[in-house]
């Protein structure tokens, strides 16, 4: 499962800000720099349609990013954009450190323990504030795997696997 599979999911438009057409964006990774440095963003609606917009201004506002899109100057113009997912093309984003990954790269990876037990695939990622949690589904079971250095011991995107060293009781259901 190699990198380079289209646009990267960065966050979600969670509301408007003021009356002049600004959007409040929640960053899924907490890496605000990814959103702040973009000149264009792609928004995906509930029907799965992608639409690209030019960013006029991006600014940090507390734990959210405010986006002002070019040509949108009124709250009524941006209200239909609330709830859309925010994407950017991979080549527009900065390089990640060796041990960092975009969520899109991790979704679908097969999770195996360091003892060789296959748990299933990463179905969803939950941002909890302190660390992400990987929702792994395999057959009738679902596992919640914390994204901690002590737990996640390896990620091989080429092989499509994540190796974990489960903490005591983590796999008990």
Task: Output the keywords.
SH3 type barrels, 6-stranded mixed sheet, 3 helices, 12 strands
Q: Choose one word for the global shape.
A: elongated
Strand-residue proportion:
over 45%
What structural class results from the helix and strand content? mainly beta
What distance lies between the first and last C-alpha atoms, to the nearest angstrom?
29 Å
> How many domains make up the 3D coordinates?
2
Element order: H for helix, E for strand? EEHEEEHEHEEEEEE
Stretches where pLDDT is under 50 for at least 5 consecutive residues are none
Can you describe this structure?
The protein contains 3 helices and 12 strands. It has helices at 32-36, 75-78, 103-106, and strands spanning 8-17, 22-27, 40-44, 50-61, 64-69, 85-88, 110-113, 118-127, 132-138, 141-146, 152-156, 161-164. 20% of the residues are buried. The two termini are 29 Å apart. The longest helix is centred in the first third of the chain and has 5 residues, at 32-36. The model has no long low-confidence stretch (mean pLDDT 89). The chain is elongated, with a radius of gyration of 18 Å. The chain folds into 2 domains: 8-91, RimM (Elongation Factor Tu (Ef-tu), domain 3), CATH 2.40.30.60; 107-164, SH3 type barrels, CATH 2.30.30.240. Strand 3 and strand 4 (50-61) form a beta hairpin.
């Amino acid at each position: 499962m190699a990198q380079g599979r289209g646009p990267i999911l960065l966050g979600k438009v969670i509301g408007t800000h003021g009356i002049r057409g600004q959007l409040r964006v929640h960053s899924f990774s907490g890496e605000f720099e990814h959103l702040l440095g973009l000149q264009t963003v792609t928004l995906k609606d509930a029907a799965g349609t992608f639409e690209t917009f030019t960013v006029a201004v991006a600014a940090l506002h507390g734990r959210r990013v405010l986006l002002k899109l070019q040509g949108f100057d009124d709250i009524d113009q941006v209200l239909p954009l609330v709830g859309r997912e925010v994407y950017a093309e991979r080549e527009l984003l900065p390089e990640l450190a060796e041990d960092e990954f975009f969520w899109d790269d991790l979704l679908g990876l097969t999770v195996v323990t360091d003892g060789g037990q296959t748990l299933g695939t990463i179905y969803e990622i939950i941002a909890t504030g302190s660390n992400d949690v990987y929702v792994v589904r395999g057959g009738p079971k679902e596992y919640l795997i914390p994204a901690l250095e002590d737990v996640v011991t390896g990620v091989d995107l080429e092989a499509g696997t994540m190796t974990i060293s489960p903490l005591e009781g983590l796999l008990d259901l």
